[in-house]
């Protein structure tokens, strides 16, 4: 009985290893095309933020998003009611995680905070930045990128929301190739995240 269980465990492990090998090798499975391009976002270089209270530390919470945006897929809005995903292309991680990391880096680039933390890092936090990704994709009808992120600034000591705001930006893609779409999304996202950092520094 022990040997049979061990064999079953080995079999499952072998299948898992084979599956990982196929994924890492970008093999096509079941007729699906392999993803050939993986894209990253860049962080805004914030130079016009205001000074904040000395020693202030802020926690960047992972953004929430509807399922259509909570994945590695790059969204194409084909109409007001329908979306598609950009073929053979993806983000480097789930979009909310990528956005979280780049927002944190933008805050760090401002050089205004004593500490910028992510959940689980154990910082003594003064404020939390709570965000919701409402739009993050290409509007096919205008061949442009649109990024909209809603933000709440929370006092971590009192649990009170200090202020809230919605930031939105667009950028022309210029062409319909994947790299042009991603550049446009990156431009719009950097504009949104820079505005976000500046706005937060006016509230603390």
- Number of structurally distinct domains: 2
Q: Give me the CATH fold name of the largest domain.
A: Rossmann fold
Spans with pLDDT under 50 lasting ≥5 residues?
Answer: 1-31
* Portion in helices: 25-40%
CA(first)-CA(last) distance: 64 Å
Average pLDDT, rounded to a whole number, is: 86
Percentage of residues in DSSP E strands:
25-35%
**Total number of helices:** 3
- CA gyration radius, whole angstroms: 21 Å
Series of secondary-structure elements, N-terminal to C-terminal:
HEEEEEEHEEEEH
What class would the helix/strand composition place it in?
A: alpha/beta
Please write the CATH class name of the largest domain.
Alpha Beta
**CATH A-level architecture of the largest domain:** 3-Layer(aba) Sandwich
Largest sheet, described in full?
Answer: 8 strands, mixed
Specify the CATH homologous superfamily of the largest domain: ABC-type transport auxiliary lipoprotein component
Q: Give the total of beta strands.
A: 10
Instruction: State the shape.
Output: elongated
């Amino acid at each position: 009985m022990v040997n049979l269980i061990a064999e079953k465990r080995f079999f499952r492990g072998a299948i898992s290893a084979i599956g990982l090998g196929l994924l890492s090798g970008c093999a096509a499975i079941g007729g699906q095309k392999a993803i050939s391009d993986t894209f990253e976002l860049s962080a805004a270089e914030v130079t016009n933020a205001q000074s904040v209270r000395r020693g202030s530390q802020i926690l960047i919470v992972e953004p929430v998003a509807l399922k259509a945006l909570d994945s590695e897929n790059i969204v194409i809005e084909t109409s007001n009611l329908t979306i598609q995903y950009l073929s053979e292309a993806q983000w480097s991680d789930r979009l909310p995680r990528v956005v979280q990391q780049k927002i944190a880096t933008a805050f760090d680039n401002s050089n205004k905070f004593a500490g910028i933390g992510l959940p689980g890092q154990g910082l003594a936090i003064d404020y939390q930045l709570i965000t919701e990704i409402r739009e993050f994709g290409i509007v096919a009808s205008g061949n442009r990128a649109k990024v909209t992120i809603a933000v709440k600034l929370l006092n971590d000591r009192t649990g009170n929301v200090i202020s809230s705001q919605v930031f939105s930006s667009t950028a022309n893609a210029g062409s319909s190739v994947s790299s042009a779409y991603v550049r446009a999304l990156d431009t719009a996202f950097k504009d949104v995240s820079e505005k976000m950092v500046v706005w937060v520094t006016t509230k603390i």
